[in-house]
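Model it.
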Amino acid sequence: MYKLQIVLELLVLYVGISHSWDIAVSYKDVLEFYTNETQIVKINFKSHHLSALAYDEVHDRLLYVDKQNNNDAICGYNISPNTYYCYLETHGKNIHGLAFDPVTELVIFSDTNERSINWIQLVAKADNFGHLLIKLDEGIPTDIAVDSCRGYVYWISTNLPTPKIERL
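Modeled.
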């Protein structure tokens, strides 16, 4: 078995009618889908470095961050049909966390360079640079989660004497 260095977090997903996998794991330029601890699909992306995952169950689309030098891009992989599309290309941002809110259909992401949490709508990338949700005075926002029912955004705030989970 090859040595696996996971560059991305594991994303545990609800098993629904639209897909037949439980977990998606990403490392370097590979995305693997598993069910019951068995690999069912392995996809080699043309991306250089996959960095964060979020699942859009409404459109059966896996969202991810492609890190290329100093240019992070938020992209999507439509599982059926197998198509790729980039929604936002950034220059100088370091996108660390990524979440999808199915109620508002917004992608929420953290930028560790700017110490901010931002959002975008999934539309054509022209003139879509992201919108500021909150800028932190202290701490660096990393991983993100969305509670669609209650309307909260949660994130891990690091670089503090005591890292903590915060919400907006």
